[in-house]
Amino acid sequence: MPDSEHGAALRYLAHLAERVAAAKTSSEVAEVLTEVAAPVSGLLPLTREVVVRAWIAASDLQGAAPGEEPEPIARLGDTASNMSQAARVILRARNHPARPAQQLATSPPPSHAQPSASRHR
Q: Rounded to two decimals, what is the model's pTM?
């Protein structure tokens, strides 16, 4: 990658870090997480694609059959899987603050008119 593209990528990542650090709302955080983990155009899925292609290319160059790659190359497949899992976790985290606040209590609060059993002791 030419230096200008590499620099632009680094600046973009730094910009995302700054945006999330300066976020005042959960929707601002969610926007950044979407850019990181969106299924088609997110940074993490695109990076995962690079790792998968590197794994395939390295396996081909080694002449190894699937499942018989040297350990470091085989671990690239595991890494790609972990990256997919990480993207799913990030998207779940992104979706969590976007949900309306759920009522925490499932039963009505205790009445203040009747003291609890522990207060009678």
A: 0.69
